[in-house]
Amino acid sequence: MYFNDFSLTSVLVITISWYILQAIAYYKFFEKAGQPGWIGLVPFYNYYTHIQIVGRPTWWVVMLLVPVINFFVALTIHLDLLKSFGKYTYFDQAVGVILAPFYMLYVAFTNTEYLGKATEMPKKKKSTSTEWFEAIVFAVFAATFIRWVFMEAYVIPTPSMERSLLVGDFLFVSKIEYGPRTPKTPLQIPLTHAKVWGTEIPSYLSFIQLPQWRLPAFGEVERRDVVVFNYPPEFKHPKDLRTHYIKRCVAIPGDTVEVRAGQVFVNGESQENPELMQMRYFVETDQVIRPRVFENYNIWEQYQSVNPEGKNGYMVLTVGENAEKLEKLDFIKRVTLMLDDEDRVESRIFPDARYFPWNADYYGPLEVPFRGMKIVLTKQTLAKYGSTIRNYEEAGDVTISEDQLIIDGEALTEYTFKKDYYFMMGDNRHNSEDSRYWGFVPEDFIVGEASFIWMSLDDKENLFSKIRWSRLFRGIE
After folding, report:
1. Do strands 405-407 and 410-412 pair parallel, antiparallel, or not at all (unpaired)?
2. Residue 173 pLDDT > 80, yes or no?
3. Do residue 439 and residue 414 come from a single domain?
């Protein structure tokens, strides 16, 4: 269940059902605490009474309206209510969080008594080690929850998005923009991803795999969004624990994407290029250029080369503006944009170079699959979409021959897609492993939207110059 599965109606049904169960529990709780039971049915007033019963300041009601903070306030007063009715063990607290509001109903209607305000109840004397343990458990829980629902830190490890994003940029990725995913692999060491820190040891047990849902979101993936997702063709890990990739979305479900002479077209229209998009250029010169010259123009990827005409120089990856500046230098003869020939075929190109003789600069047209898209199964359509159906549709036991698709033993003549897909490309267009090489990104592999850079470190600099101060807290376009 993903982006479009949570309609407004379903969200309202879930919210109202939750509220009704909570209100019924409140009715009994309030009666036991000496308050009129009907207050439990009144919105906001019931929260006000709840806060009074557990002994928290009444102005906490206002904090329930503040995003993010309201989660921690609601969690605190929820646990306080359980304590006020004698449920204060770790088991009670854990079940009370995981199964709320069902556990609230159980506590309210079983043989429990109101013991007083939780904040005024005598505190059990704890050892220093116990206090430290509880503090660590709470910190891990809070960090895990924030990482799952709201934000996750991410570092740029490769130059595929330069110069929009640089190697060493530390980002915050928004989960709520596209909706957080429920965990598919629940048995995992908290705050890890696939491996234990600094080792090759898996940080999870995969024998339990849960159905996965995406919670309601603020928006959907749009063209030009910078998106973090799980790398689709990495099959050695469960899909929610595959390596994180970051690329720019250039085409959404139903779009037809094409690259002509390095320029992206979507549905036949030329697309606006990212401001700092890098391409490959040949810098023709008879001189040896010192690395410092390239660094002055923010060119970090360069090497000596000979162009097809036999001219000496350097192959560089840079933005168009810097290429123009280089060409004006006295010792530079010419700077030329280097594109693949239209008739050159890249063997690794997606979907299948045998049927689609494309390359990175001359690609497509290719339609991006969408949920409900129906295709007639031919040798051509299977070459185009067969691997996507087999690897990501979760359609069952899939077997593909050149002109036949067999699912669970049944040969099909047509197929209807179950998921939406996206086409991703790096801003460093000639140094990016992206959808041109490994295909579409399924909707359930989307992690979140890159929001802003909170830290940036240059590993080529010394200790005192490592921080790129100009990039701190910069938004991502």
Report:
1. antiparallel
2. yes
3. no
> Number of helices and strands (H, E) in the chain?
11, 21
Beta bridge partners of 154: 171
Label residues 6-16 b or e (16+ Cβ within 10 Å = b). beeeeeeeeee
Q: Is the sign of the CA dihedral 186, 191, 194, 200 positive or negative?
A: negative
267: closest CA among 281, 280, 251, 283? 251
The token duo for 191 is 């705050």
Pairing of strands 363-367, 256-260: antiparallel
**Residue 3 confidence class, pLDDT cut points 50, 70, 90:** very low
24 with 100, same domain: the answer is yes
Which residues have C-beta within 8 Å of that of residue 98, sequence separation ≥ 6? Answer: none
Tokens found for residue 206: 């995969």
What sign results for the dihedral spanned by CA atoms 36, 40, 43, 48?
Answer: positive
- Judgement on whether residues 50 and 32 belong to the same structural domain of the protein: yes
- At 152, the amino acid letter reads E
For residues 244 and 286, state if they share a domain. Answer: no
Whether 92 maps to a domain, the answer reads: yes
By DSSP bridging, strand 421-425 and strand 441-442 are: antiparallel
Whether the per-residue pLDDT at 2 is higher than 50: the answer is no
Dmax (CA) for the chain in angstroms is: 92
pLDDT of residue 5: 47
What is the DSSP code string of 441-453?
A: EEGGGEEEEEEEE
Quote the domain boundaries for residue 446: 149-255+427-477
Q: Give how far the C-alpha of residue 111 lies from the chain's centroid of Cα atoms, to the nearest Å.
A: 45
Residue 471 lies in a domain: yes
Single-letter amino acid code for the residue at 442: P
Reported pTM:
0.81
- CB burial of residue 125 (10 Å; 0-12, 13-18, 19+): exposed
Q: 325 Cβ partners below 8 Å, 6+ apart?
A: 297
Q: Mean pLDDT over residues 361-384, rounded?
A: 96
pLDDT, residue 255, reads 98
Q: Residue 131: pLDDT above 50?
A: yes
Please tell me the total count of domains within the chain: 4
Residue 284's φ and ψ, nearest 5 degrees, are -85, 125
Q: Given this model, what pLDDT does residue 11 score?
A: 62
Residue with tokens 């020939």: 341
User: Rounded distance, CA 18 to CA 141, Å?
Assistant: 23
User: Which of 14-23, 128-137, 307-316, 434-443 comes out lowest in average pLDDT?
Assistant: 128-137
Q: Cβ(279)–Cβ(264) under 8 Å?
A: no
Nearest to 222 by CA among 35, 438, 3: 3
- Which CATH number fits the domain that encloses residue 447? 2.10.109.10
